[in-house]
């Protein structure tokens, strides 16, 4: 019985870490106005969670910036001058070339956001499995305690 209790304690500790990560994620999501997705509710540990949330925030801000640039390009005339900052130098760029570059960046950013959401969803599934294990061990301990009480 002591063995089962040790296992239960270990599982509870792991689950506690997962829950701490979830709480942190929820707070960060609310504070930073991250889109509310069902897959954005849990993470494996606070450090990994923080990394994923920061990456998601960075990608979303980049996405917003690129959407703003895309709107600006749409409002420009076809013969408008567009300059790209390369190091300390501004280089002239065609509107079509600049538009294609922004579209490519937006496509990449959307793929990265999806990848991060998938990581968070995977971690959520791990958390759910741990929770099921804990419930199973708790019922085992209760059954053993009931059997010990009945035999006494």
Automatic annotation (TrEMBL):
Stated family: Belongs to the prefoldin subunit beta family.
Pfam families assigned to the protein according to its UniProt record, in alphabetical order: Prefoldin_2
Sorted UniProt keywords: Chaperone, Coiled coil
Protein name: Prefoldin subunit 6
Cellular component per GO, a single term: cytoplasm
PANTHER family in alphabetical order: PREFOLDIN SUBUNIT 6
Coiled-coil regions listed in the entry: 52-79, 106-140
Source taxon at top rank: Eukaryota
């Amino acid at each position: 019985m002591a063995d089962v209790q040790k296992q239960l304690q270990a599982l509870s500790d792991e689950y506690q870490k997962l829950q701490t990560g979830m709480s942190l994620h929820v707070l960060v999501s609310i504070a930073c106005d991250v889109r509310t997705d069902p897959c954005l509710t849990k993470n494996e540990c606070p450090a990994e969670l923080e990394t994923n949330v920061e990456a998601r925030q960075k990608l979303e801000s980049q996405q917003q910036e690129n959407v703003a640039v895309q709107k600006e390009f749409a409002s420009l005339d076809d013969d408008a001058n567009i300059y790209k900052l390369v190091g300390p130098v501004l280089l002239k760029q065609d509107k079509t070339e600049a538009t294609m570059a922004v579209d490519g960046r937006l496509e990449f950013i959307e793929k990265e956001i999806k990848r991060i959401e998938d990581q968070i969803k995977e971690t959520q599934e791990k958390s759910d499995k741990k929770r099921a294990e804990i419930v199973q061990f708790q019922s085992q301990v209760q059954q053993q305690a009931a059997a010990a009480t009945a035999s006494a």
